[in-house]
Amino acid sequence: MILVTGGAGYIGSHNVITLMESGYDVVIFDNLELGHIETVEALRKIDAKGKVVDFIKGDLQNYNEICDVFKKHKIDSVIHFAAYSQVAESVKNPQKYYFNNVFGTLNLLKAMLSFDVKKIVFSSTAATYGEPDYVPIDENHPQVPINTYGKTKLMIENIMDDYDKAYGLKSVRLRYFNVAGVDSKIRVGEWHEPETHLIPNILKSTFSGGKTFQMFGTDYPTKDGTCVRDYINIEDLANAHVLALKYLENGGVTSFFNLGTNEGNSVKEVFTTCEKITGKQIPVDIKGRREGDPAILIADNKKAKEVLGWNPEKSLEESILSAYNWEKTL
Ligand code: UDP
Fold first, then answer.
1. How far does the centroid of ligand 1 lie from the alpha carbon of residue 22, in Å?
2. Domains of the chain: total
């Protein structure tokens, strides 16, 4: 049985599907603050080779609640998504982030050690690199996060190294670039309140009653003046987690990998692709820069390809099309 923390959220729920379809039973632990019970219900309806998904509502900041999961189920490995992830909010309210992300993870690791569970795949981020010295960013790039969110994720990566040395706890840290798209069968999707991400925000503005899309910054030193990001499809991302789990199951050492495509798209390019896919002219307001946005973030994904055998396959167009199909159901 695999414990998935944050399995009722966007990235977690897609991973639950991929895990079940890869033959794993799953227990989700989620406090439903940002995750949704409707997502859990959708996951329960999935018939994946007879695999089961259990759900336990609880909070990582409560050590007893997380221990109850280990008492109820024989956990083999953990995939840890539960975290706050809003950069701007993390800068305004660092206490909220340090308690939830860092203290919550310390409780999870403590429970793992006390129940002798020694394998964890952790949801880390390109935000641990900070302002890039060079792109594409490889895993040897210095990790100098420029916001509290990135700092919490880096602290956890460092804690995991110490826990490996002292207790033999093996971790794989997956550093995500920009995750895009939804389940191609639209069983679950992307559901944030408020939504801050580029693709859903562009798509939402195509529907009647939607807000005009706001484009943040057109004066960056990039090909067209807008920020460049590496958009990795959610299903490709979920596959990487299963490969990371198998890597640990096969005795792999603690490691870390970038998850991206090696390619960058500007905000304007994403916007134009959304117009093409929806067949609509999308209303746009040009705004100033959003604080804390680096000009260019592109992953070097060679290590994940070589070591995990990962191969991201889906295009930006496929991610946008799935996201659009999902938005139409809301
Ligand atoms: N962005 C934008 N309008 C929006 C949301 C995002 O112009 O409504 C821009 C944002 O400034 C950044 C890029 O789109 O340059 C990707 O932002 P997102 O929040 O999706 O991901 P992040 O790069 O912050 O992880």
1. 32
2. 1
Could you tell me the maximum CA-CA distance found in the chain, to the nearest angstrom? 57
CA distances, 109 to each of 124, 162, 293 (Å): 16, 12, 32
326 within some domain: no
In whole angstroms, what is the distance from residue 297 CA to residue 152 CA? 19
Q: Is residue 201 part of a domain?
A: no
216, 218, 289: which to mutate for ligand 1, most atoms within 8 A of CB? 216
Kindly list the averaged pLDDT for each block of 10 residues, start to end, along the chain of length 330. 98 98 97 97 89 95 98 98 95 97 98 98 97 97 96 98 98 98 97 93 94 97 97 98 98 98 98 98 96 93 98 98 96
User: How far, in Å, from the CA of 215 to the mean position of ligand 1?
Assistant: 8
Residue 10 within any structural domain of the chain: yes
State whether the Cα torsion 11-14-20-22 is positive or negative.
negative
Q: State which ligand 1 atom lies nearest to the alpha carbon of 270.
A: 14
The model carries a pTM of 0.97
Q: What pLDDT score does 52 carry? A: 85
The answer to whether residue 275 is domain-embedded is: no
How many angstroms does the Cα of residue 95 sit away from the middle of ligand 1? 24
